[in-house]
Fold this protein.
Amino acid sequence: MLKVLIPTIMLFPTIWISSPKWLWTTTTAHSLLIALISLTWLKWTSEAGWTASNMYLATDPLSTPLLVLTCWLLPLMILASQNHINPEPVNRQRLYISLLVSLQAFLIMAFGATELIMFYIMFEATLIPTLIIITRWGNQTERLNAGTYFLFYTLAGSLPLLVALLLLQQSTGTLSMMILQYSQPLTLESWGHKFWWAGCLIAFLVKMPLYGVHLWLPKAHVEAPVAGSMVLAAVLLKLGGYGMMRMMVMLDPLSKELAYPFIILALWGIIMTGSICLRQTDLKSLIAYSSVSHMGLVAGGILIQTPWGFTGAIILMIAHGLISSALFCLANTAYERTHSRTMVLARGLQMIFPLTAVWWFAANLANLALPPLPNLMGELMIITSLFSWSPWTIALTGVGTLITAGYSLYLFLMSQRGPTPNHIVGLPPFHTREHLLMVMHLIPVVLLITKPELMWGWCY
Amino acid sequence: MASRLSRIWPALSRVRLRSALGCRCVSQTTKSSAAVASDLQPVSPAAQDSHGHTEVSPFEKNPDFHGFHHQDSFVDEWNMRLAFFFGISVAIVIGGTFIHYLPDHGMRQWARREAERLIKQREADGLLLMSENYYDPSKIVLPSSGEE
């Protein structure tokens, strides 16, 4: 764990001591080396359970894929931001990268935490750099509103979580996940216990987000600069999923009844947000609502607490993280050229950017869960486990899959096909950097087809 | 650039002080500083957009522009090379090889191979693949019916 955490903290000297000319080069190279080292986490040293070198930070098959995703995402964020941050003064550039790195450090400590309070503190700590990134470097005035929604939705959910964790500490004497997983099922009958159950989960449901408390997400994703959107979509949403999976271990047997409304909300949210996607005019807003839709499926998979549900949830989280980040990068390339997120203003792009059309095509096919990509595998596992939980869910998930295919194709056809309007015929060509960025998003998704057991979580 | 800034700054500071004193003007410049007012608009031939890009594409100055560094083509090229090297050659290729050769966690692949081997062997010997009873039925002691 320290072999990744200490190089991440040493990124701060790299940022502040590098000469301005070589700042982005050194940080990119350094963060890619950290990503390489993070792959060693995939060598699980125990047959089941935690790989722990100390009591405070450990990895297990659930947290490892998310940790590797986090470490992989930092160099991609740096690559994506290089162009639009370039005109700013050097120290502000350094500050921007420092915020991304601090977010990375908090996320590593959050996913690696063995103690629930440490996880909670890191969960909250990730809010601060994200808020600064959104409100300081966002492009429109709505970014202030977006920051407010983002901060207060998450805080409103996580304060009950703090109370719930403190109550749990008082009743069990420990909050270490390694111990709590072996604790006896708690006798939970009273209304107070039901509120405690809700308090444990609401923070993560808001973070995922569950449909109904999802309003912060379209605002935050849209107003954030590209690196902010990438980290939000790829990793921060998965903090919610990961937190839920950790907490569910201790919340039986109440979850059998109490999870019902949330499962239904999640499934309904797939259809609702998918339908909203079909009517969106703003490119980033469409991708943001698509994230809500996919995360609704993940939430459903987690809440039913079956092995396949959990496995499908993790696979979908990883695959969606990479593809959603890829889509935001593509949207940013269009935004940097046309300075607008309106889809009708940047259409017919295939004629002028043919190679980029390949990336758009691949990303959209992955988004609509094309086999054999892991997006499909995750969705299929969740849908089948939901079906075995209750056959009626197939109606919701089936329609949701259809709508997902619909809006993904709509996004592709709208941006790439059709006549190219005159005002964008003369747009500057794509940079090598942007092609590299897309390749580094899509290659891991394709490679994961060959070894999906890395993502199967506890069931492997 | 610096000389232009040094000309603009006195005018800007005058305007700022004046507005701080509560003088509400529709336009932020006074008549006497009309010459300075025109300096507030950059008069360079290439207007700058919000990203600081000039209307002239960076590909004009550097046809091999890779998107990493606008001003220095040497840094731009080396940034591209290092990003590709560390991103593809190191992280994806070496990392991918490492992942490919990870040990068989939980002996799952061994279990699959062993099962296939046993099935082939049993079919060749003509035996049943698996006996119906997992436990030996003679060893199971059932309570007699009629008791609670």
In short: The interface with chain B takes residues 21-22, 24-25, 28-29, 32-33, 35-36, 39-40, 42-44, 47-48, 72, 75, 79, 82-84, 86-87, 336, 339, 428-434, 436, 439-440, 443-444, 447, 451, 453-454, 460 of chain A (CB under 8 Å).
